[in-house]
Specification:
The protein is of the alpha+beta class. It is built from three helices and six strands; from the N terminus they run αβββαβββα.
Length: 165
């Protein structure tokens, strides 16, 4: 069976859980949930980190018709999901690019993106299904969490808006 967004979100959850359990800082009490119902609606946040980490987002696979993480609809969807959960931080991803969004920034949704991380170069979900691809994704998503996401949302690293244009 081909990889789907829910399955990929569950894999990311397991990778992030492993990264969080290995962390010895104040984040050791955090957890990651996937497919959390948001605000009583049928919409679901693909990944939400709770505790000291306040992050929710919108995950698409690269062959989804509306996969572009920069798409204003995806950005606004991620921001709305994060705000519904009381989170300051949001993200969008197409499995290749992860955009971190500061929900406290005002203005156009693209201007709220504070960090862009490259995770892979997958063309479609079939190419993501191999063991090699899963190993590469595990490393990329784990590194993104520990080297970029956690430092940013805990205030260790400063968010610098990305120029759009």
């Amino acid at each position: 069976m081909a990889l789907n967004e829910w399955g990929f979100a569950a894999e990311i959850k397991s990778w992030w859980d492993a990264a969080l359990s290995a962390d010895t800082s104040e984040l050791d009490h955090c957890s990651v949930e996937d497919q959390v119902e948001v605000g009583g609606s049928q919409k679901r946040s693909d990944l939400t980190a709770n505790g000291a980490v306040q992050l929710a987002g919108e995950l698409r696979l690269p062959d989804h018709p509306e996969h572009d993480p920069w798409d204003p609809t995806n950005l606004l969807g991620a921001i709305n999901k994060a705000q519904a959960r009381g989170a300051r931080w949001a993200f969008t991803s197409d499995a290749n690019t992860l955009l971190l969004i500061d929900c406290t920034v005002t203005g156009p949704v693209q201007d709220r993106v504070v960090q862009m991380l490259t995770l892979g170069s997958w063309g479609d979900r079939r190419t993501m299904d191999s063991l090699g691809a899963r190993t590469a994704n595990e490393k990329a998503w784990g590194d993104a969490l520990t080297r970029h996401v956690i430092p940013l949302i805990t205030g260790v690293a400063m968010a610098v808006p990305i120029p759009v244009g």
